[in-house]
Amino acid sequence: MWRTGFRGWFYLSxxxxxxxxxxxxxxxxxxxxxxxxxxxLGRYPLFDQPEEPELQRPLTLFMVFPFTVxxxxxxxxxxxxxxxxxxxTLITMMASLLLCLFLILNLVKRTGFHMNYRFILGFATxxxxxxxxxxxxxxxxxxxxxxxxxSNDELMWSLIGTLTGGVISGLLxxxxxxxxxxxxLLVVSPEEDR
Amino acid sequence: xxxxxxxxxxxxxxEIAIVLMGALAYSExxxxxxxxxVMGALIxxxxxxxxxxxxxxxxxxxxxxxxxAVGLHTFGLLVGLYDSxxxxxxxxxxxxxxxxxxxxxxALYLFDLHSVKIKVPRWAYPMMIVVFSIFIxxxxxxxxxxxxxxxxxxxxxxxxxxxxDCYMDMLGGLMASMMWALWFxxxxxxxxxxxxxxxxxxxxxxVF
Lengths: 194, 208
What we know:
The complex is a heterodimer of chains A (about 190) and B (about 210). Chain A has about 190 residues and is mainly α.
Protein backbone atom coordinates (compact mmCIF):
# COMPACT_ATOMS: atom_id res chain seq x y z
CA MET A 1 0.00 0.00 0.00
CA TRP A 2 2.77 2.41 1.06
CA ARG A 3 4.85 1.44 -1.96
CA THR A 4 1.96 2.07 -4.38
CA GLY A 5 1.10 5.27 -2.54
CA PHE A 6 4.67 6.49 -2.65
CA ARG A 7 4.99 5.75 -6.34
CA GLY A 8 1.69 7.54 -6.95
CA TRP A 9 2.83 10.63 -5.01
CA PHE A 10 6.18 10.46 -6.80
CA TYR A 11 4.57 10.62 -10.26
CA LEU A 12 1.81 13.01 -9.27
CA SER A 13 4.25 15.56 -7.85
CA UNK A 14 6.24 15.64 -11.10
CA UNK A 15 3.12 15.86 -13.25
CA UNK A 16 1.70 18.72 -11.15
CA UNK A 17 5.05 20.56 -11.12
CA UNK A 18 5.28 20.20 -14.91
CA UNK A 19 1.86 21.80 -15.35
CA UNK A 20 2.80 24.68 -13.00
CA UNK A 21 6.12 25.32 -14.77
CA UNK A 22 4.51 25.25 -18.20
CA UNK A 23 1.80 27.65 -17.05
CA UNK A 24 4.35 30.05 -15.53
CA UNK A 25 6.99 29.65 -18.28
CA UNK A 26 9.45 28.72 -15.54
CA UNK A 27 12.36 27.60 -17.72
CA UNK A 28 14.67 26.46 -14.92
CA UNK A 29 12.10 24.22 -13.22
CA UNK A 30 11.04 22.90 -16.62
CA UNK A 31 14.63 21.80 -17.23
CA UNK A 32 14.77 20.12 -13.81
CA UNK A 33 11.48 18.34 -14.44
CA UNK A 34 12.28 17.27 -17.98
CA UNK A 35 15.62 15.91 -16.78
CA UNK A 36 13.92 13.86 -14.09
CA UNK A 37 11.18 12.66 -16.43
CA UNK A 38 13.92 11.53 -18.84
CA UNK A 39 15.64 9.77 -15.92
CA UNK A 40 12.45 7.96 -14.91
CA LEU A 41 11.55 6.96 -18.47
CA GLY A 42 15.09 5.83 -19.12
CA ARG A 43 15.16 3.89 -15.80
CA TYR A 44 18.45 5.52 -14.93
CA PRO A 45 20.23 5.15 -11.58
CA LEU A 46 18.40 6.70 -8.60
CA PHE A 47 15.10 6.98 -10.46
CA ASP A 48 14.44 3.40 -11.50
CA GLN A 49 13.29 2.04 -8.14
CA PRO A 50 11.51 4.82 -6.24
CA GLU A 51 9.97 2.39 -3.75
CA GLU A 52 13.27 0.86 -2.63
CA PRO A 53 13.74 1.58 1.13
CA GLU A 54 17.22 3.11 0.83
CA LEU A 55 16.04 5.42 -1.92
CA GLN A 56 12.83 6.57 -0.32
CA ARG A 57 14.36 9.12 2.02
CA PRO A 58 16.55 10.83 -0.60
CA LEU A 59 13.86 10.71 -3.28
CA THR A 60 11.19 11.98 -0.86
CA LEU A 61 13.42 14.69 0.50
CA PHE A 62 14.98 15.79 -2.77
CA MET A 63 12.27 15.27 -5.33
CA VAL A 64 8.78 14.57 -4.07
CA PHE A 65 9.00 17.14 -1.26
CA PRO A 66 10.53 19.98 -3.37
CA PHE A 67 8.09 19.37 -6.22
CA THR A 68 5.10 19.28 -3.88
CA VAL A 69 6.22 22.48 -2.12
CA UNK A 70 6.90 24.12 -5.51
CA UNK A 71 3.35 23.30 -6.64
CA UNK A 72 1.89 24.50 -3.32
CA UNK A 73 3.86 27.79 -3.40
CA UNK A 74 2.62 28.52 -6.91
CA UNK A 75 -0.91 27.27 -6.38
CA UNK A 76 -1.46 29.48 -3.35
CA UNK A 77 0.70 32.30 -4.72
CA UNK A 78 3.08 32.27 -1.74
CA UNK A 79 6.16 33.84 -3.29
CA UNK A 80 6.49 36.80 -0.92
CA UNK A 81 8.43 37.11 2.34
CA UNK A 82 11.95 36.15 3.31
CA UNK A 83 10.99 32.77 4.76
CA UNK A 84 8.99 31.64 1.75
CA UNK A 85 11.63 32.88 -0.67
CA UNK A 86 14.27 30.98 1.30
CA UNK A 87 12.15 27.83 1.18
CA UNK A 88 11.64 28.33 -2.54
CA THR A 89 15.42 28.68 -3.09
CA LEU A 90 16.15 25.66 -0.92
CA ILE A 91 13.72 23.36 -2.74
CA THR A 92 15.08 24.60 -6.09
CA MET A 93 18.58 23.69 -4.99
CA MET A 94 17.49 20.32 -3.61
CA ALA A 95 15.89 19.40 -6.94
CA SER A 96 18.92 20.78 -8.81
CA LEU A 97 21.27 18.66 -6.71
CA LEU A 98 19.25 15.53 -7.41
CA LEU A 99 19.30 16.18 -11.15
CA CYS A 100 23.06 16.88 -11.16
CA LEU A 101 23.64 13.78 -9.08
CA PHE A 102 21.66 11.76 -11.58
CA LEU A 103 23.72 13.16 -14.47
CA ILE A 104 27.02 12.44 -12.73
CA LEU A 105 26.00 8.95 -11.60
CA ASN A 106 24.98 8.30 -15.17
CA LEU A 107 28.40 9.41 -16.43
CA VAL A 108 30.08 7.21 -13.83
CA LYS A 109 27.92 4.26 -14.86
CA ARG A 110 28.36 4.58 -18.59
CA THR A 111 31.84 6.05 -19.13
CA GLY A 112 35.39 5.85 -17.86
CA PHE A 113 34.66 8.64 -15.39
CA HIS A 114 35.11 7.35 -11.81
CA MET A 115 34.91 9.01 -8.43
CA ASN A 116 34.25 7.99 -4.84
CA TYR A 117 31.05 9.11 -3.11
CA ARG A 118 32.61 12.21 -1.56
CA PHE A 119 33.74 13.48 -4.93
CA ILE A 120 30.50 12.57 -6.67
CA LEU A 121 28.48 14.47 -4.08
CA GLY A 122 30.94 17.38 -3.95
CA PHE A 123 30.99 17.72 -7.70
CA ALA A 124 27.20 17.41 -7.91
CA THR A 125 26.81 20.15 -5.28
CA UNK A 126 29.20 22.43 -7.16
CA UNK A 127 27.47 21.69 -10.48
CA UNK A 128 24.03 22.42 -9.05
CA UNK A 129 25.21 25.77 -7.65
CA UNK A 130 26.88 26.66 -10.97
CA UNK A 131 23.81 25.66 -12.99
CA UNK A 132 21.40 27.61 -10.81
CA UNK A 133 23.75 30.65 -10.73
CA UNK A 134 24.02 30.54 -14.53
CA UNK A 135 20.24 30.65 -14.86
CA UNK A 136 20.01 33.52 -12.35
CA UNK A 137 22.53 35.46 -14.45
CA UNK A 138 20.60 34.72 -17.64
CA UNK A 139 17.32 35.75 -16.02
CA UNK A 140 18.80 39.00 -14.70
CA UNK A 141 20.41 39.76 -18.07
CA UNK A 142 17.05 39.20 -19.76
CA UNK A 143 15.39 41.56 -17.25
CA UNK A 144 18.00 44.23 -18.01
CA UNK A 145 17.55 43.77 -21.77
CA UNK A 146 13.75 44.08 -21.76
CA UNK A 147 13.74 46.90 -19.22
CA UNK A 148 12.34 45.04 -16.21
CA UNK A 149 13.57 46.58 -12.97
CA UNK A 150 16.50 44.62 -11.46
CA SER A 151 19.16 45.61 -8.97
CA ASN A 152 22.62 44.42 -8.07
CA ASP A 153 21.51 43.70 -4.49
CA GLU A 154 18.69 41.46 -5.73
CA LEU A 155 21.10 39.55 -7.95
CA MET A 156 23.61 39.14 -5.15
CA TRP A 157 21.02 37.95 -2.61
CA SER A 158 19.77 35.42 -5.19
CA LEU A 159 23.33 34.14 -5.67
CA ILE A 160 23.89 34.01 -1.88
CA GLY A 161 20.63 32.05 -1.52
CA THR A 162 21.68 29.67 -4.27
CA LEU A 163 25.07 29.06 -2.69
CA THR A 164 23.61 28.55 0.78
CA GLY A 165 20.78 26.34 -0.51
CA GLY A 166 23.24 24.29 -2.55
CA VAL A 167 25.56 23.72 0.41
CA ILE A 168 22.63 22.78 2.72
CA SER A 169 21.30 20.36 0.08
CA GLY A 170 24.73 18.76 -0.28
CA LEU A 171 25.01 18.34 3.50
CA LEU A 172 21.49 16.89 3.70
CA UNK A 173 22.31 14.36 1.01
CA UNK A 174 25.64 13.36 2.53
CA UNK A 175 24.11 10.94 5.02
CA UNK A 176 22.05 9.20 2.33
CA UNK A 177 24.98 9.05 -0.04
CA UNK A 178 27.17 7.42 2.60
CA UNK A 179 24.54 4.83 3.51
CA UNK A 180 23.46 4.16 -0.02
CA UNK A 181 25.08 1.40 -2.03
CA UNK A 182 25.59 3.82 -4.88
CA UNK A 183 27.80 1.46 -6.84
CA UNK A 184 24.87 -0.98 -6.83
CA LEU A 185 22.63 1.82 -8.05
CA LEU A 186 24.83 2.27 -11.05
CA VAL A 187 23.69 -1.10 -12.35
CA VAL A 188 20.14 -0.92 -13.69
CA SER A 189 18.42 -4.19 -12.76
CA PRO A 190 16.58 -6.06 -15.50
CA GLU A 191 12.77 -5.91 -15.31
CA GLU A 192 12.36 -9.57 -14.29
CA ASP A 193 14.54 -9.10 -11.18
CA ARG A 194 12.13 -6.68 -9.57
CA UNK B 1 64.29 20.84 -1.30
CA UNK B 2 66.11 22.80 -3.99
CA UNK B 3 63.89 25.24 -5.84
CA UNK B 4 64.26 25.29 -9.63
CA UNK B 5 65.94 28.33 -11.16
CA UNK B 6 62.90 29.28 -13.26
CA UNK B 7 60.61 29.22 -10.21
CA UNK B 8 63.01 31.42 -8.23
CA UNK B 9 63.36 33.93 -11.07
CA UNK B 10 59.58 34.26 -11.60
CA UNK B 11 59.02 34.41 -7.84
CA UNK B 12 61.62 37.15 -7.29
CA UNK B 13 60.57 39.20 -10.30
CA UNK B 14 56.88 39.10 -9.38
CA GLU B 15 57.52 39.79 -5.70
CA ILE B 16 59.76 42.80 -6.47
CA ALA B 17 57.20 44.27 -8.90
CA ILE B 18 54.24 43.73 -6.55
CA VAL B 19 56.05 44.94 -3.42
CA LEU B 20 57.21 48.08 -5.26
CA MET B 21 53.64 48.81 -6.36
CA GLY B 22 52.43 48.23 -2.79
CA ALA B 23 55.10 50.52 -1.35
CA LEU B 24 54.18 53.24 -3.83
CA ALA B 25 50.50 52.94 -2.90
CA TYR B 26 51.24 53.14 0.84
CA SER B 27 53.60 56.10 0.31
CA GLU B 28 50.69 57.95 -1.32
CA UNK B 29 48.48 57.08 1.64
CA UNK B 30 46.29 54.68 -0.34
CA UNK B 31 45.77 51.60 1.77
CA UNK B 32 43.36 49.74 -0.54
CA UNK B 33 45.83 49.20 -3.44
CA UNK B 34 48.56 48.66 -0.82
CA UNK B 35 46.57 45.90 0.89
CA UNK B 36 45.82 44.37 -2.52
CA UNK B 37 49.56 44.29 -3.23
CA VAL B 38 50.28 42.62 0.13
CA MET B 39 47.66 39.95 -0.61
CA GLY B 40 49.11 39.46 -4.09
CA ALA B 41 52.65 39.15 -2.73
CA LEU B 42 51.50 36.54 -0.21
CA ILE B 43 49.69 34.54 -2.91
CA UNK B 44 52.80 34.56 -5.10
CA UNK B 45 54.92 33.06 -2.32
CA UNK B 46 52.73 29.93 -2.25
CA UNK B 47 54.22 28.13 -5.30
CA UNK B 48 57.73 28.95 -4.02
CA UNK B 49 57.01 27.67 -0.49
CA UNK B 50 55.31 24.50 -1.75
CA UNK B 51 58.31 23.73 -3.96
CA UNK B 52 60.74 24.54 -1.15
CA UNK B 53 58.82 22.16 1.15
CA UNK B 54 59.14 19.42 -1.47
CA UNK B 55 55.39 18.99 -1.91
CA UNK B 56 54.45 20.52 -5.22
CA UNK B 57 56.32 21.99 -8.18
CA UNK B 58 54.01 24.29 -10.13
CA UNK B 59 54.73 24.24 -13.88
CA UNK B 60 56.53 27.43 -14.88
CA UNK B 61 53.88 28.43 -17.44
CA UNK B 62 51.21 28.36 -14.72
CA UNK B 63 53.40 30.31 -12.32
CA UNK B 64 53.95 33.00 -14.96
CA UNK B 65 50.21 33.08 -15.63
CA UNK B 66 49.48 33.50 -11.90
CA UNK B 67 52.04 36.33 -11.67
CA UNK B 68 50.40 38.01 -14.65
CA ALA B 69 46.95 37.77 -13.03
CA VAL B 70 48.16 39.17 -9.69
CA GLY B 71 50.33 41.81 -11.40
CA LEU B 72 47.49 43.07 -13.63
CA HIS B 73 45.16 43.34 -10.63
CA THR B 74 47.67 45.22 -8.47
CA PHE B 75 48.70 47.53 -11.31
CA GLY B 76 45.03 48.27 -12.08
CA LEU B 77 44.40 49.19 -8.45
CA LEU B 78 47.53 51.36 -8.24
CA VAL B 79 46.98 53.35 -11.44
CA GLY B 80 43.19 53.46 -11.07
CA LEU B 81 42.55 51.54 -14.28
CA TYR B 82 39.49 49.84 -12.76
CA ASP B 83 37.85 53.30 -12.71
CA SER B 84 39.27 54.82 -15.87
CA UNK B 85 39.41 51.92 -18.35
CA UNK B 86 36.13 50.08 -18.87
CA UNK B 87 37.70 46.84 -20.07
CA UNK B 88 40.35 46.52 -17.33
CA UNK B 89 38.00 44.72 -14.91
CA UNK B 90 36.92 42.35 -17.71
CA UNK B 91 40.56 41.64 -18.60
CA UNK B 92 41.58 40.84 -15.02
CA UNK B 93 38.52 38.61 -14.53
CA UNK B 94 39.29 36.77 -17.77
CA UNK B 95 42.97 36.19 -16.91
CA UNK B 96 42.29 35.24 -13.26
CA UNK B 97 39.41 32.92 -14.10
CA UNK B 98 41.47 31.14 -16.78
CA UNK B 99 44.27 30.76 -14.24
CA UNK B 100 41.97 29.33 -11.55
CA UNK B 101 40.41 26.98 -14.13
CA UNK B 102 43.83 25.74 -15.24
CA UNK B 103 44.97 25.14 -11.65
CA UNK B 104 41.72 23.24 -10.96
CA UNK B 105 42.36 21.11 -14.06
CA UNK B 106 45.89 20.40 -12.85
CA ALA B 107 44.52 19.31 -9.46
CA LEU B 108 42.06 16.96 -11.21
CA TYR B 109 44.84 15.61 -13.40
CA LEU B 110 46.94 14.83 -10.32
CA PHE B 111 44.01 13.06 -8.67
CA ASP B 112 43.56 11.10 -11.87
CA LEU B 113 47.24 10.13 -11.89
CA HIS B 114 47.70 9.29 -8.24
CA SER B 115 44.34 8.00 -7.01
CA VAL B 116 42.92 4.56 -7.72
CA LYS B 117 39.33 5.66 -7.08
CA ILE B 118 39.27 8.83 -9.14
CA LYS B 119 39.57 8.57 -12.90
CA VAL B 120 38.77 11.54 -15.11
CA PRO B 121 38.70 10.96 -18.88
CA ARG B 122 39.99 13.67 -21.19
CA TRP B 123 36.53 14.76 -22.42
CA ALA B 124 35.40 15.47 -18.84
CA TYR B 125 38.02 18.15 -18.16
CA PRO B 126 36.45 21.01 -20.19
CA MET B 127 33.06 20.38 -18.55
CA MET B 128 34.55 20.31 -15.06
CA ILE B 129 36.71 23.41 -15.65
CA VAL B 130 33.72 25.46 -16.84
CA VAL B 131 31.57 24.29 -13.89
CA PHE B 132 34.39 25.17 -11.49
CA SER B 133 34.91 28.60 -13.09
CA ILE B 134 31.21 29.51 -12.76
CA PHE B 135 31.27 28.30 -9.14
CA ILE B 136 34.40 30.28 -8.23
CA UNK B 137 33.07 33.32 -10.13
CA UNK B 138 29.89 33.20 -8.02
CA UNK B 139 31.87 32.91 -4.79
CA UNK B 140 34.13 35.78 -5.86
CA UNK B 141 31.18 38.07 -6.58
CA UNK B 142 29.59 37.15 -3.23
CA UNK B 143 32.90 37.96 -1.51
CA UNK B 144 33.02 41.35 -3.29
CA UNK B 145 29.43 42.04 -2.27
CA UNK B 146 30.22 41.07 1.33
CA UNK B 147 33.24 43.42 1.23
CA UNK B 148 31.03 46.26 -0.03
CA UNK B 149 28.32 45.68 2.59
CA UNK B 150 30.59 45.03 5.57
CA UNK B 151 33.62 47.23 4.85
CA UNK B 152 32.42 49.66 2.12
CA UNK B 153 35.17 48.50 -0.24
CA UNK B 154 33.20 49.59 -3.35
CA UNK B 155 34.29 46.59 -5.40
CA UNK B 156 30.96 46.20 -7.19
CA UNK B 157 30.04 49.21 -9.29
CA UNK B 158 26.69 48.27 -10.77
CA UNK B 159 24.44 45.43 -11.89
CA UNK B 160 25.88 45.43 -15.41
CA UNK B 161 29.41 45.37 -13.96
CA UNK B 162 28.59 42.31 -11.84
CA UNK B 163 26.92 40.55 -14.77
CA UNK B 164 29.89 41.37 -17.01
CA ASP B 165 32.32 39.98 -14.41
CA CYS B 166 30.37 36.73 -14.15
CA TYR B 167 30.26 36.28 -17.92
CA MET B 168 33.99 37.02 -18.13
CA ASP B 169 34.61 34.33 -15.50
CA MET B 170 32.72 31.86 -17.68
CA LEU B 171 34.70 32.96 -20.73
CA GLY B 172 37.91 32.50 -18.73
CA GLY B 173 36.73 28.99 -17.84
CA LEU B 174 36.08 28.24 -21.51
CA MET B 175 39.53 29.60 -22.38
CA ALA B 176 41.14 27.37 -19.74
CA SER B 177 39.16 24.39 -21.08
CA MET B 178 40.46 25.00 -24.57
CA MET B 179 44.03 25.53 -23.37
CA TRP B 180 43.81 22.34 -21.35
CA ALA B 181 42.31 20.23 -24.14
CA LEU B 182 44.63 21.55 -26.86
CA TRP B 183 47.88 22.16 -25.03
CA PHE B 184 48.35 21.28 -21.36
CA UNK B 185 46.83 17.82 -21.64
CA UNK B 186 49.62 16.60 -23.91
CA UNK B 187 52.18 17.32 -21.17
CA UNK B 188 55.02 16.82 -23.64
CA UNK B 189 57.83 17.57 -21.20
CA UNK B 190 56.14 15.72 -18.29
CA UNK B 191 56.04 18.91 -16.18
CA UNK B 192 52.43 18.37 -15.12
CA UNK B 193 52.90 14.76 -14.07
CA UNK B 194 56.13 15.64 -12.23
CA UNK B 195 54.60 18.56 -10.37
CA UNK B 196 53.50 16.37 -7.44
CA UNK B 197 56.36 15.36 -5.17
CA UNK B 198 56.63 12.16 -3.15
CA UNK B 199 55.19 13.37 0.20
CA UNK B 200 52.09 14.67 -1.60
CA UNK B 201 51.76 11.45 -3.63
CA UNK B 202 51.88 9.46 -0.38
CA UNK B 203 49.17 11.71 1.03
CA UNK B 204 47.02 11.17 -2.11
CA UNK B 205 47.38 7.42 -1.76
CA UNK B 206 46.57 7.47 1.95
CA VAL B 207 43.53 9.72 1.78
CA PHE B 208 41.99 8.90 -1.62
